[in-house]
Write a structure and sequence with these properties.
The protein has helices at about 1-10, 20-35, 115-125, 140-154, and strands spanning about 40-45, 50-60, 70-80, 90-100, 105-110, 110-115, 130-135. It is of the alpha+beta class.
Length: about 150
């Protein structure tokens, strides 16, 4: 099945092979350093599908073998008003890029970080011929939550 094919490419691999943003790499380095010192880090995050908005809670800690473990707890799921069918498109824009928060899925705009749905409805991004490239970062709000969690543990 598809999960087994993907899991072979992900499980046991270095986390940083999958993170391209300097900011996101840095915050994960800080989280992992804290966890390696015996602390547990917890935070909410969003992991959507094209048809659903899904909320989770992440716990990062050491297992019995002293390996860093990421555990996701499902919290809620809501049907999207407009499914993101075009996300499967091969027509990716070479000029247009969205920066999305890796945790909450807000999108960086000239007006600040806005909810993904607000940007989608306003810009009609995923119904255009070419869809934007998506890069990930971290918004100020999520950065504060994560830094606060790290500080509590030090």
């Amino acid at each position: 099945n598809g999960y087994e094919i993907i899991s072979d490419k992900v499980i046991g691999k270095n986390l940083f092979n999958f993170i391209y943003s300097k900011d996101v790499k840095q915050i994960y380095r800080e989280i992992i350093a804290c966890v390696k010192n015996g602390k547990t880090i917890k935070f909410p995050f969003r992991c959507d599908s094209p048809t659903h908005v899904r909320n989770f809670f992440m716990t990062i800690n050491l297992d019995e073998e002293k390996k860093v473990t990421f555990t996701s707890e499902f919290l809620s799921e809501n049907l999207r008003e407009t499914p993101l069918k075009a996300i499967y498109s091969t027509n990716i824009s070479e000029e247009y890029m969205l920066v999305m928060c890796s945790w909450c899925k807000k999108v960086k705009t000239q007006a600040g970080w806005l909810e993904l749905e607000e940007v989608l409805n306003k810009e009609k991004i995923f119904i255009k011929r070419e869809i934007p490239q998506i890069s990930h970062g971290i918004c100020e709000e999520c950065y504060s939550v994560i830094k606060s969690e790290i500080s509590k543990q030090e």
